[in-house]
Amino acid sequence: MEQFVAERLLRFSDCDPSGIAYFPSYLNLLNGVVEDFWEFLGFPLAQLIKGRGVGTPTVQLECRFERPALFGERLTFVLRVAKIGRSSLHLAHRITGADGVKWSARQVVVATSLREHRAIPWPDDLRASLQRHFPTPSVESA
Amino acid sequence: MEQFVAERLLRFSDCDPSGIAYFPSYLNLLNGVVEDFWEFLGFPLAQLIKGRGVGTPTVQLECRFERPALFGERLTFVLRVAKIGRSSLHLAHRITGADGVKWSARQVVVATSLREHRAIPWPDDLRASLQRHFPTPSVESA
Amino acid sequence: MEQFVAERLLRFSDCDPSGIAYFPSYLNLLNGVVEDFWEFLGFPLAQLIKGRGVGTPTVQLECRFERPALFGERLTFVLRVAKIGRSSLHLAHRITGADGVKWSARQVVVATSLREHRAIPWPDDLRASLQRHFPTPSVESA
Amino acid sequence: MEQFVAERLLRFSDCDPSGIAYFPSYLNLLNGVVEDFWEFLGFPLAQLIKGRGVGTPTVQLECRFERPALFGERLTFVLRVAKIGRSSLHLAHRITGADGVKWSARQVVVATSLREHRAIPWPDDLRASLQRHFPTPSVESA
User: Fold this and answer.
1) Least packed by Cβ within 10 Å: which of A22, B36, B84, D132?
2) What's B52's DSSP letter?
3) C-alpha A111: how far from its chain's center?
4) How far apart are CA A30 and CA A43, in angstroms?
5) Which chains touch A (3 or more CB pairs under 8 A)?
6) Rounded mean pLDDT for each run of 10 residues along chain A, 142 residues in total
7) Do D70 and B46 touch (CB under 8 A)?
8) Of B2, A28, A119, A53, whose CA–CA distance to C15 is shortest?
9) Chains A and B: how many Cβ contacts under 8 Å?
C-alpha cells in the first residue's frame, strides 16, 4: 500500500459567508485525516499522547489552494508518505473533488516528548509500522 | 508605516489536549488578523464581500512552526506586505511570544469575483490604500 | 423508524487543554449530526440553502452535560423528533459513550427565508418526509 | 460592579454559508468571554488549570437565539452572576447588537478536580473574589 485515502463531506461548518471552504477548516479536516492515518498504523493519537507522552506537532506546512470547494461537496484526501526521518515524517496530501484537484499540501510533523516539547526519535514500533505500510516513500514528493 | 501589528491571547479554545496551540486554530487567528488588516486599510471584509462581491481567498500558504505556544500566552502578529500584484497580495507574517518567534508564514491571497470564483484585479481604491500604507513592499520577504 | 443515529469519534481538535471535550465543539458535532439528518430525510442542507433559500437556524437550545468525554472516545448521537410545528422542529438528542450518557440536548430549529431572515412554514415535501420517517413524535421528550 | 461586559466583532470565521452567525461559533465566543471574566477576577484559566488542576466545565446551558447576527456586526456580551453555589456558578448572558438583543443564555459551570473529573468546592480565594465583585447576585436571573 502506498497511500492512505479518506473521504470527507465539506460541511456547513467548514464553509464561510462567501460560500466556500474556509481554509483553516480545511486544515482542521486535514488534521483529522492524519489522525485517522495514525489509527490505521495502529497508533491512535490518543494513546500516543496519553499513554506514551508522545506528540506529533506540525513544524512545516505548505499549501496550494487551486479550486474553491463548495458547501456540500465530497472530497477525497490522499495522503502519501514522502520521507521517514529520524524524528520527522514528511507527508504529501492531495485533495480532490468532482472537478479535479482542490488543493495539495506538504506537511512535516515531528515526534516530540510532551514533557519537554522537544524532538525525539520515532518509537521503534511506530517506525516499523510506517516502514511496513509505506515501504517506498514517493520520491517525486520528497 | 511598514507593518501591521495585532496582539492575540492564545485561548483555551485554541489549544489541544497536548496543551499547546492547535495549528488550524493558529491559522484561524491569522485569518482574523488579516481581517483586521483589511479593516485598517478602510476595506472591511464584510463590505468587500457583501457590498462588492469581492472575495480574498488564500491560494498559497507556507508556515514554519518553530516553538510551541502554550495556553494563556500572549502573541504578537506582525504582518508585512511583500508584494502587491495585479490580483494577488503577498503577505509575510511573523508571530512572536515572550520567548521569541513562535512561527512565521507566507501567504498569497487573490481578489476574486464571488459570482464566478475567478481572479479579478484589485479594485483601484483598495490598491491605492495598500500602496499608501505599504509604499515599499519588503524585498527580503518577496 | 423513530430515531436517527450517528457515530462520532471525539477528535483531537474537539478537545481542550484540560483533555476533555470542549463544549462548543460538542455543538459543532451536533450540528453535523443534524446536517446528516437532513440528508437522510432527502433534503441536504446545501440544497435547501442554495437551491431554495431556506435556512434552518437554531432558536432554542438546552444542554445538560453529565459526564466528561475524553479525546479518542467513540460517541453515539441519537436524535429523536419531539414535535413538528408549522415552522419549527423540536429535536431531542442523547449522546452516549461507553460509560453511559455523556450529555443530552433539546433543540428547536425553524425554517426561515434566507432573504428576509424570517420564519416560513416547512416546505410541503420536507414536512411530508419528516412525518413519514417520524410518524409519532416522542411524547416524553416533547 | 454588577456585570462584566465584553465587546466582540462577529468575524468571517464565525459565520456560515447562510451569512449569519454559526451557533457553535457563538458559544465559542461566549466561552472566550467567560475566559476573560476569570482573568478579570484575578484567576486566569491557564493558571487555574495548569497551576491548580482546577477545571470549570459547563454542566448546563440554555440559549435563546432571537435575532440573527450578520458577519461584521459588533456585539456586546453582558455577563451577570446569578448564583454562587458551593461548587457551581450560575451565569446569565445577554448579547446585543445595534438592533437589540441577539441572544441570551443561562450557563452553569462547576469547579472540578482535573485529576478525578469530579466537582470540588470553589477555592476560597476565588470565591472571595467572586463575592467581592458580584456582591448581590441578580435575583431575576437566578
Assistant:
1) D132
2) H
3) 14
4) 18
5) B, C, D
6) 91 90 97 97 94 95 96 97 97 97 98 92 97 78 42
7) yes
8) A28
9) 75
